Amino acid sequence: MSDSPATLIDILRQRAAHQPQQIAYRFLPSGQPISRSISLTYGQLDQQARSIATWLHTSGFSQQRAVLVYPYEAGLEFIAAFLGCLYAGTIAVSAHPPRNRSGAEEILARCIDAEASVLLTTQAFLAKLQSQIAAQIQTHSPQPQTTYQWCATDRLSGHLSGSINSTWEPASIDPDSLAFLQYTSGSTGQPKGVQIRHANLMQNQRLLQLAFGHDSQSVGVGWLPLFHDMGLIGNVLQALYLGAPCILMSPIDFVQKPLRWLEAISHYQATTSGAPNFAYDLLCRKVTAAQQATLDLSSWQVAFTGAEPVRLETIDRFSQTFAACGFRREAFYPCYGMAEATLFITGSQKLQPPVTLCLEPETLAQHQARLVSWSSSTQPERDIAIDRTLVSCGQPWLDTEIEIVDPQTGQICPPDQIGEIWVAGSGLGNGYWNQPELTQQTFRATLPDRPDRFYLRTGDLGFLHQGNLFITGRMHDVMVFWGFNHYPQLIEQTVAACHPGLQSEGTAAFAVKIQDCDRLIIAQEVERSYRDRLKLDEIIELIRWRVFEEHFVDVYGIILLKPGGLPRTSSGKVQRSACRQKFLAQELDAIDQWQQPADLPSDPNAVMERYFHLGVHLKRYTKLTEGKIKRWMAALPLPI
Questions:
Q1: Looking at the predicted structure, is the pLDDT value of residue 615 above 60?
Q2: Phi and psi (nearest 5°) for 575?
């Protein structure tokens, strides 16, 4: 390109002018062979986006907020609408299609919070969506007379195409102007609209290109929802930025038939594709040996993984399972990002094995990251080593800066001490929409020796080791029992591994107050095939024992749920805070549940005594010896 583009719309206009026939996006329709796709060229995409922009401008919605609600199978229509909003200077607000009443409630809440004027969707989805939102307005809106303008954008292209050039030309866009509101998943509270400027988008695209080693010959495949930051910015907009092909599919297609993701990578010889950790686990369980024989994954160079803890066990299992298909372990690309940072914060080195550290788990309780040291004669079994291993999420790129800060004192932590992750750089969002106090707290943090440099407080805990960032948990998810800090994801790993009937990636561990004391609750999804044949008493005792054995914690309550019973974010992450709220409100749809009597002693002495008495009964579950328990007791700073 001759001129250096300042915004993604500049890039789209240049591509439409110089390569109008090149295919920009392919979408794989549900139920069709993987070789069949619906496509958009750059010329077609530009015309559709300008048609939508014309309608928005002439209808008076420039500088207003527009909520985009598109069914999963309308991926190309969503892309055209999003870019049409950027063209018109309309601030886009994306939302997932409602599958139930709570989904419609969330859309209305987003409309109200963003002060939206118009909703964009497809003609086929319009009537159903209008009915759902109207019902929610009557029930929940503080102003029941609230009305919104509606537009089925897939009907605009032919209607306005003849008058695009004669009636309106888009004005140049200020890179510092607001492009869209990216609502957080709400995993730690109420969703908030992050203000993303055009300059933030462009910086994040540069970061992704450099960190992933992308160029115009890269090929992306993605099933992540397009209303989510990873799907929109990491897949869709990165492809536009590069001028590289992008193949998309519905997330429902992946959930229903996980193999379809790998088939798309194989057929289109993708170089980049990724998802949260759970997706790789799912493929290991669901793809048969006969199906593996049909796949060629040798082109896959960047298998990015983020949005939830990255597990070494998953990396190893997936690499071994699909090695015969040409997949290379070094293709795994752990990374870290969040909506408040537009998307990308840190990433690994392309085609380099993931960096790992094996830590002493006891030191995590004191927010210290101390490496395990052992000789060859005392090296533990591999499964123990994996359980103690953290995977690096890489390093910051370009002008991104990471500091590990004590959240209580605001001082930078000593090396290898765990603290809150603070981030600075030009890729960060510009604060929360209409929330100045929260913006000041989250986006305007400063260090004592750098009063003029603003940092984003991520709320995530971690540490730096030799320039690599390691995530240990969420600051507000850390639980304290008997004076020890506990990370819920570690307890969740232990629970899910107890029995094949317990759903992997389907566990939530959280604390509730019982008689002024924090107690541990486990909510666990049951595998569908085990739903009617699990013995409740045995499963409950097994979970309690394993959690005590591995983490020295007493489980107060266990709730078994049907598949899909846990509240999750749009990217599939379990929402612990929402699960806790549902538990307290008795709104979890339990298959069965168990809870200790509230007056049963739960101090370390009482629990230890209980497990000594049950030692004979529990021998079939564990190799824990009386000697090991006594050594624990001697080492613990507790009055046992």
A1: no
A2: -95, 95
